[in-house]
Every structure is written in C-alpha cells, then in structure tokens.
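Problem: given the chain below (411 residues), write out its structure.
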Amino acid sequence: MPRRAEPLPKAEPKPIPPIGVKVSTDMERRSYGLRARARWTDPTSKRRIIRSEIVADEAAAHAFFDQLRQSSVKGMDVSMTLTEFVTLIGDRWARGLDPTSTGEVYEYGLKLRVLPALGHLPVTQITAGMIDRTIDEWEKRHSASTIKNSISPLVRVLDEAVRDGLLTVNPAKNRAKRSLHRNAFRAQPAEDASPRAHAIPDLATLTKLADACGKVHQSYSDFVMLAALLAARSSEVSGLQVGDVRFAKNLVVISRQTFPGKGGLVTKATKNRKERRVPILDALRPVLERLTEGKEPGDRLLVGPRGGALTTATVRDATKWDQLVIDLGLPDLTRHGLRHTGATWMADAGVPLHVLQDILGHASIETTRGYLHPDDRHLASAAEQANAFLSRSSRPASRSRGSQRRQERGL
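Solution.
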C-alpha cells in the first residue's frame, strides 16, 4: 500500500454575498482584460467586502455576477473546485466508515488518484463522461479493486455536493458498474476477486515474512504472526491486552481496537462492537507465551521499539513493507491481507461456516462465505447429466415395427 498522502492544505474560502444582501457590480477595462467587481456589506461585521475577477468579455463578467448570486442562494461558492470542496467539508464524506480499514483505503484513493485527476475541476462541471474517461486511464495502471477504492470516495464526496445543492444528481453514481464493453474494468477470475486472493499461501511463507520484519525489530515480526494467526485487523492487534489471552481455554478475546485519531491514539470497541473469541493455534502459542510473560493483565500485549502501540502505518514505514513484500514474491499483500490469510486457512481446514463467522466477527454470513474455496463438484455433475442427454439424443431413431414387417415381406 502506498505511503499515506499528505493532508490537503487549508485554503481560505472565497467570500460570497449573504442571502438578501444587496450586491453592487461594475466592470473596468484593463490592458490585460476586463475586471469584473462585486461589492457588498457584511451584515454582521459591517465590513465592505469586494470580490473581483479578470474575465475575457462582458458575457463572462455577467456569468461571474450570476455565479455569485447563485452562491449566495446556496450558501457556498458554486465555482469551487473539487479540491476546494473536499477541503471545505473535511472528513464529512467519510462518516460511518471504519477509519482503520475502509476509511483509510478510501482516503488513499481520494488523495492519490481522484484529486490529482479531477481536483482542479469546478464541482458543478464534473460529468459522468469525465469520470468515465478518468476511469479509462486508471484501468491502464491499476487493478479493479484499486479503481473501486477510488470511485467509492468520489461517490461519497459528490453525495455531499448534492446535499449542499452544488449538484442536482451525483455523476459518479454507478460508474463502477459500467457495462462490460470497451470502457469496462478488466475481467477478474472469481477467485481473484475474493479475499482468498489476498492471502499468504502457507505457514512457511508467513514465517519467512515474519522473520524479515523481525530483522527490523521483533515487535514487527510478532505483529505479523498475531494478525495472521488470529485473523485480526491491525487495529485489533494494537488493542490487545495481556488479559485477553486465555491459555486455560486456549483462546484470545478480541474486544477492542486502537488506531491513530485526531489528537492521538483512539481505543474503542471492535468494528461491530461485539467481543469475539479466537482459538490459539499451535504456531502462535510460543509468541503469546513470550509476550505475556511477567506482565499484568491490563498491560498492552504488543508494544513497539519505543514502548508504544504499533499501528499499521508504523509497521508499513518501519519495515518498508511495500518493497519487502515485493522481494518475497507477495506484491499485493497489505497488512489487512494478514487477516485474510488466517480466515482463508481456517476455511480450508474445514472450520464450519457459522463458527468462522463468529471468529471473524462478520455481521453477514455471506461475507464469511467469500473465504470458502470454490466448490466445482456441482459442475462435474452437471456435465455428466448433459453428456448422458446428448449421448441418448445422438442415437439413430428406431424404426417402427410396421415398417420392419413391410421390409421383411419385400413390400
């Protein structure tokens, strides 16, 4: 996963006349063009506000004045660009997203792909066609999942633009579901589209990854093993305490998550706000015994080199994760892929679906079903039935008894 994008600079919003305020306008010819100027008095501060713009001709000047009047009605500048709008609304577009997983991925997509491609355009001028052409360019360089994680935040941002009255409809809606013709996403095999595709193939490869991370610091190796063998999110690994490890019952209780937030680390309940219990696998037991030895139940189970909580960003930066997984032949592996790894291995081991759902904490069993290995036995049965049917239909039709008798009589 790419390094976190720098936050957008906080730009001062352009002034717009308040509702009901009288606006004076004038135009002045200059050597470099026509200066269109609007003036009004702020009813609260009583200050005289001036906003001007250099335009090509009188028609453009009148368009500028009309734009200001529309901005006054809507309560915001209707000429603002997408980047300016995202800066204005802050993280309002991300409401309801888990900041440690979906929210983080969508933020990458917005800042690293959407705004560089469309951020300079006025929100009111963004069309479905522009978005389609942008997606066409993304398809040449990025996977379908990366494109989805870029369109989704764009949809959310433009939903806010609709709510604020800048747009009447959201032009990004259904852009990820375009018909599969020239402008479609590259087709993916069913297995590649499932979470199984993001899993590490076997325990030996996981151990190799953990050892490579351990060369930087042991805590990074432990992070890898905990996330994979508990099928846990990075934030859940960060939130584990010593008392969550129950050797007597051979399980680990996952009841909280810790992740970076505004003002520092945030600790809260798990994503679905429910405690879940994960069995301790043999490969993880030595790690847990070492991490719990001599500690109090309320102590943090895993701490970093400086004694603080580990986060997915800390692991990424310290281990140079992106290059590390490429060198190990796992170029698409993210930290969240470690959770997919544990879930995939448990599914392949035959853990019942409803038990696996409880271990992973999925609200819907259909989400859990994505970890099951595709079962193609029903296709073999279908082939047998079809072959039997075709075999019967290809036999020559039997002659009637009457025709056989007439032939025998020489008729």
